[in-house]
Amino acid sequence: MSRKRSHPPRALPWAVLFAAAVLMAGAAWVWRTRPELAARTPWARRDARRGLGPASAPTGPRPQRSLTALVYFLRITDRGVELIPTKRQVPAESPARAALEELIAGPLPEGCISPLPDGTRLRGVKVKDGLATADFSEELVKRFPGGSSNEAATVYSIVNTLTSLPGVEKVQILVGGRVVDSIGGHVDVSSPLSYDGELVKH
Fold first, then answer.
1. Disulfide check for 159: which of 1, 89, 101, 171 has CB 3.0–4.6 Å away?
2. What is the DSSP string of 2-71?
């Protein structure tokens, strides 16, 4: 009597297909999330030699995201002092610092000057819970030229610039790391300030 040949379990092909699908999914995940590993595979090196595939893609830094800030520069006219809002692109990763550096160092719009005393440096700035705390060097006070209008322009150039950024509602100005009553004796900066458009001209 002849024996019947045994056949492999019918589930085996499905198991093989499932394992292959898992391997392909894993390879795709590595390709997307770990390009440096994918680039080491033999086929990736082959494609790289041919000028194809991700192994030959540029490896430079990614383009930096930016946002628009309004930087308020000072203009002096026969009517008095004015703050001129100027659009500047600043990096989204550190917009407050970049906006204040623009205010300090320019470039200046035509007919405008910096509203901050010469030599003023930004010691630091941080934003938390809608409050931006900006710390300036002692020159902000020591080299301030005087005058109530000039002082208002200096203070609100800082405040208005920072409150033009998303998430900033108020600004606390520090000098040398500490709270001061005023910069020149006219405008109280001992507590956080909000945007003020009295001197702003568009």
1. 171
2. PPPPP---THHHHHHHHHHHHHHHHHHHHHHH-HHHHTTSHHHHHHHHTT-SGGGS--SPPPPPEEEEEE
Q: CA dist 7 to 3, 15, 57, 93, 189, Å? A: 12, 16, 49, 64, 88
Residues pairing with 69 in the sheet: 88
Give tens-digit pLDDT for 174-193: 999 999 999 999 999 999 99
Cβ distance 132 to 161 under 8 Å?
no
How confident is the model over 33-52, as pLDDT tens digits? Answer: 555 555 555 555 555 555 54
Structurally, how many domains does the chain consist of?
Answer: 2
Whether residues 71 and 152 fall in one domain: yes
Phi, psi torsion values for 133, nearest 5 degrees: -110, 115
Residue partners of 129: CB distance under 8 A and separation at least 6:
none
Determine the pLDDT at residue 56: 47
Q: Domain check: are 36 and 119 in the same one?
A: no
C-alpha torsion sign, points 200, 157, 152, 190? positive
Whether residues 46 and 72 fall in one domain: no
In which domain, by residue range, is 30 found?
A: 14-50
